[in-house]
Write a structure and sequence with these properties.
Layout: H1 7-13, H2 16-22, H3 25-41, E1 46-50, E2 55-58, H4 60-66, H5 70-73, H6 84-100, E3 102-108, E4 120-128, E5 134-143, H7 145-160, E6 165-169, E7 174-177, H8 179-185, H9 189-192, H10 203-219, E8 221-227, E9 239-247, E10 253-262, H11 264-279, E11 284-288, E12 293-296, H12 298-304, H13 308-311, H14 322-338, E13 340-346, E14 358-366, E15 372-381, H15 383-435
Helix pairs in contact: 1-3
């Protein structure tokens, strides 16, 4: 490793005799030497410059990044390695260091010994003299090549995604949007970019979206928020929004990546399904996976004798026994696993206290992503069927009794016939004997 300018002289000054003479100044020099060691051994490219941008110190990681020897870097102006425009930006960053003591994430693109332009970010803090005056800056460079590749790949994914995808900052300003967003809303790219999302949604939904952004910051993700943006034609488009955190190179959340799903067709399908449920002749209900009734048609009310408001948002366990509740939850698990359950027996208690025998056929209720979120159940009133079964059993019993009576009658008749035959034979025998 190349020696750091001034280190040898400082080490000489720190010999025991000199330390004794230096008295309180020894601590200051020890701190200076420790700083030199930290700079030399830092894993990131780290350099020290004066306020004119001349490089006074640089570690090996700078040489490895740029491909220059230490002697080709030291005492050189940073302008040797960056463009004239970036030199001006660097000098502005130095002024910020003087004023604020620090500057963060300035972009620099130094040219390496091979001529390659290397994208980096610069974080710099002030170097102060013994009086606290800023005399230069300590800069840490971060090689952004891999991160820029990842960013370019992410931008390509966003651009070519089939769903409408956009990137916003934490104030809701749209920084990036793919063609699918333009197709959904009917606006050109330049009419969408740099616009606040509040331009396309209502004030109430803007508040909800900002709350969703806060959820993204806290949890890293947010799912199924409802947004109804207005298109260029004035048409309100129902959508759902799933968003994940956009982070900077230090992992800090700086915005959100949002994916919109056009719900028009799904909403039409849902409205159609709700219409089918509402107008179905059989009792039909929708429950979540905990057994809470979310929707029920009039036929359910007619079956149980409860009003709609007495059924909705109630657990099915209110209407059936604990044992049947366990069986129903088992049926729900079967719906989750297989998508359907058939002919489960339920005996709900009506408003009048009557226990009503029914069978349940249920199929899976799925969300927009195909995940099972509940069940659609159809009840069949089994009272008439069971009455028929009871009538048949009664008829069967009566028939069996009649058969027994007939069998007894048959036994009597047959016995009488046998006796008559025997009597006739006996008469024939007596006639024959009398003639003889």
């Amino acid at each position: 490793m190349a020696s750091i300018p001034g280190t040898a002289k400082r080490a000489e000054r720190l010999k025991p005799a000199n330390v004794a003479k230096a008295d309180g100044k020894g601590a200051k020099w020890r701190r200076s030497l420790n700083a030199d060691i930290i700079i030399a051994n830092a894993p990131d490219p780290l350099f020290v410059s004066d306020l004119q941008g001349k490089i006074l110190q640089a570690n090996d990681a700078v040489s490895q990044l740029l491909g220059f020897r230490q002697d080709e870097v030291l005492e050189q102006s940073l302008s040797r390695f960056i463009s004239a425009e970036e030199t001006r930006e660097f000098m502005a960053a130095l002024r910020e260091v003087v004023e604020r003591g620090v500057t963060r994430n300035a972009r620099l693109n130094p040219r390496s010994a091979s001529g390659q332009v290397i994208p980096t970010t610069l974080n710099a803090s002030a170097v102060r003299d013994s009086d606290g005056k800023v005399i230069g800056a300590i800069g840490i460079l971060r090689d952004m090549r891999e991160l820029d590749k990842a960013r370019a790949y992410a931008e390509s994914l966003i651009k070519h995604a089939p769903d409408p995808v956009f990137v916003s900052d934490l104030e809701g300003k749209i920084l990036q949007a793919n063609d699918a967003v333009s197709q959904l809303l009917g606006f050109r790219q330049d009419e969408v970019l740099e616009q606040s999302l509040s331009r396309f949604i209502s004030a109430a939904e803007t508040h909800e979206f900002m709350a969703a952004l806060r959820e993204v910051v806290e949890r890293g993700v947010m799912r199924n928020a409802r947004l109804n943006p207005r298109s260029a034609s004035g048409h309100v488009i129902p959508t759902t929004l799933n968003a994940s955190a956009l982070r900077d190179s230090e992992g800090k959340v700086i915005g959100a990546i949002g994916i919109l799903r056009d719900m028009r067709e799904l909403d039409k399908a849902r409205a159609y399904a709700e219409s089918l449920i509402k107008n179905a002749p059989d009792p039909v209900f929708v429950s979540d996976l905990e057994g809470k009734i979310l929707q029920a048609n009039d036929a359910v009310s007619q079956l149980l004798g409860f009003r709609q408001d007495e059924v909705l948002e109630q657990s099915l366990s209110r209407f059936i026994s604990p044992e049947e509740t366990r069986e129903f939850m088992a049926a729900l698990r079967e719906v989750v696993e297989r998508g359907v359950t058939r002919n489960a027996r339920l005996n709900p208690r009506s408003a009048s206290g009557e226990v009503i025998p029914t069978t349940l056929n249920a199929s899976a209720l799925r969300d927009a992503d195909g995940k099972v979120i509940g069940a659609i159940g159809i009840l069949r009133d089994m009272r008439a069927y069971e009455q028929v079964v009871r009538d048949l059993e009664k008829s069967k019993t009566e028939l069996q009794e009649k058969i027994l009576d007939l069998e007894k009658f048959e036994e009597v008749v047959v016995g009488r016939e046998l006796k008559m035959i025997a009597l006739e034979k006996e008469l024939d025998r007596l006639r024959t004997r009398s003639k003889a």
